[in-house]
Structures are given as C-alpha cells and as structure tokens.
Amino acid sequence: MKFEDLKETFSVEEAVKTRYSVRTFDKRPVEKEIKEKILAYAKSLHNPLGPKMKLQFIEKNLAPNGEKLGTYGIIKGANLYVGVTIPKDEHALEALGYEFEQLVLYATSIGLGTCWLGGTFNRSAFASAMEIGEEEIFPILSPLGYPAKKKSFTEQIMRKSIKADGRMDWNSLFFKDNFDKPLAREEAREYCFPLEMVRLAPSAVNKQPWRAVVTESAVHFFEKHSMQVEEGHIDMQRIDVGIAMNHFHIAVLEKGIEGRFERIMPEFPVPGDMTYIASWVKEL
Fold this sequence. Notes:
Layout: H1 3-7, H2 12-18, H3 32-44, E1 54-59, E2 67-68, E3 74-75, E4 80-87, H4 92-109, E5 113-114, E6 117-118, H5 124-127, E7 136-145, H6 153-161, H7 170-173, E8 174-176, H8 185-188, H9 192-199, E9 210-214, E10 218-224, H10 236-254, E11 259-262, E12 274-282
Helix pairs in contact: 2-4, 4-10, 9-10
C-alpha cells in the first residue's frame, strides 16, 4: 500500500487510539453499502509477510442473548460476523494478523466496532456458514456492527480483569542494537511514532508478545513466548505480532519513511524465549 492510498483511508493514530474490543452491540444492522465498502477494502489489501487472507460475512443470530465464545466472553447484539481464512503457510498467522488488523482499523474509522476472537471459539457454529478450503485455516472471527452506547456489565468486568486499556512500558518492549539495551523514547527519533503505535496494538488477553530491536539499518521484530501453545492449537501470539507489525508499517507509511519488510536474521544474540519474525529495513 502506498502512502497516497493510506491518506485516503484513515488517520493511523486516530484509528489506533479509537479502536477497542467491542462486545456489546447496538441492534442497528450494518447497511448493505457499508458491507460492500468493507469487502472492497479487504480485497484491496495485501501484506508483506505471507499469503493473502479471505474474508466472509456470516449473518447469523447465534443466540438471542449472545453466544458464549470460550474465554473471550459474551458477544451481545451482533447480527453480523466476519470470518477470516488464509492458505496454510509458514507465515500465515503473522500475515493474517497484519492484514485483518488493517481492515479492523478501517472499520473503526467508519464507525464500526469489532472484537478479535480466536483460539477457543466454537468454530463449528460458524464454519458451516463459510467456505473453507482443504488447504486453508480458519483461526479468526470478529463481530461487526455499531457499538452500543453502554457496555454490558460482563464486558466492563472483562476489560477490567485483563487491564484492557493498559500497555507495557517502552523499556519492556523496545531495545537498541541488542536485547541488553532498552530503547529510550528520545533514542527512537523518527521511529518514535511508529513504535508507539506498536505499543498500543491489541493482543490476546493483552499479553503484548512482540519485541523490537532497533539498529542503525533496521527494526527487527520478534515473538516473545509468554503463553503455552498446546499441540494442534493456533499460536495466537504470532497473529498478535502480525498486528503489531501492521501498526508499525502503516505508521511509517503515514510519516513518509520508505522501507520494506525482509527476513534477515540479526547477528546479535537472541534469548531462548524469543522467535525472530521479520525485519523492517529502511531505504537509504
């Protein structure tokens, strides 16, 4: 995506700071023309990390009082969902996180609410309404609609319990040259805004599993393993890292900083609880 295209869609900072996980929706249906806008925007997206996602609408009232979706709580009032599938690939999860987050931010910019649901939701309740290829995975679902003016009591308790509005400090997330040196804000210079957008990114139960090491020529992104993934289950934190990388990328685009994502394993030592994902390399 070019900077000129980005300007026509939304302000990165405004969308990032406005977005929150909506679990209580107004009964007002999403208009046909708005759904067409969402689909058109989704089709126009691409990502630098892996295969392209496929988005499908699911118009289905699963239960009159809301469907309980695993550990993600209760979604109330939503009549429209979007399911996301992606071809199986080594980097499919990061790619999906990157691409779907951009769609989420676009939806936020036009007044819609969303909520990332993954990992433990009941796929069978939704999969029957979707077309899922044999070589595709279906890891993510989100309600889509207009946020209710008042959050439900359950939603308020959930947000408080996971400290949904809290974020880690800079020196826990970002490093200079290697993992031994925390990066101070004043040292980030032109990357200060993009990294702040990364810091504000959403993640499963607000774990913020991304880490970034800033060197003279690149910004290296890693997944910090803070949740155990059972065999056969989706590593949601890889999706989270894709979300964070999207925030960084669209922020540097908005600031007119040229560069690209590459996979160039950095030379500095990497802790055992970290997995290298990709690097953003500045064009000189």
